């Protein structure tokens, strides 16, 4: 993939984290990976004093069921800040609740994907996410504060 910006993975389950990282590697996606294990850690990565990234992630993969701050609140805060308002956010979760899907889209999610439980389907989903968001999708300037 030509886009070398990091991918921010917000995931509290160590097994799902490892599977996601393995799936990206298996499909040749070599972007740097940043993992936040809860909503607070994710926001600290994006907005924290002294640790704010010079370049925003190419895409955020956001789980909904997170400790300390749930994914919907993380999404709400990402969209509320002009620096990250246009940041691509893909909800990648096990939640099958229709209300979660509705709320995620109302809050500005770019996509909502239920994590496949089958390993091969999960690999395929991650490959498609990578192909679309890293190779095909056009984004605004990646520097914090520039076009955001």
UniProtKB/TrEMBL annotation:
Gene3D superfamilies in the cross-refs: 3.40.50.2300
4-aspartylphosphate modifications at: 63
Transmembrane parts of this sequence: none
One Pfam assignment: Response_reg
InterPro entries found in the cross-reference section: CheY-like_superfamily (IPR011006), Sig_transdc_resp-reg_receiver (IPR001789), TCS_response_regulator (IPR052893)
Highest taxon in the source lineage: Bacteria
Keywords: Phosphoprotein
Domain Response regulatory: 6-130
Listed name of the protein: Response regulator
Organism: Thauera sinica
């Amino acid at each position: 993939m030509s886009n070398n910006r990091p991918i921010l993975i917000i995931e509290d389950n160590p097994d799902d984290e490892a599977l996601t990282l393995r799936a990206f590697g298996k499909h040749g996606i070599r972007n740097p990976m940043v993992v936040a294990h809860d909503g607070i850690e994710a926001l600290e990565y994006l907005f924290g004093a002294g640790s704010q990234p010079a370049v925003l992630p190419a895409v955020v993969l956001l789980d909904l069921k997170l400790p300390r701050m749930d994914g919907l609140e993380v999404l709400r805060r990402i969209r509320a800040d002009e620096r990250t308002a246009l940041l691509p956010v893909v909800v990648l979760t096990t939640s099958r609740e229709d209300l979660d899907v509705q709320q995620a889209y109302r809050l500005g999610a770019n996509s909502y994907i239920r994590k496949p439980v089958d390993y091969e389907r999960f690999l395929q989903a991650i490959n498609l996410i990578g192909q679309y968001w890293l190779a095909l999708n056009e984004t605004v300037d990646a520097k914090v504060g520039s076009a955001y």
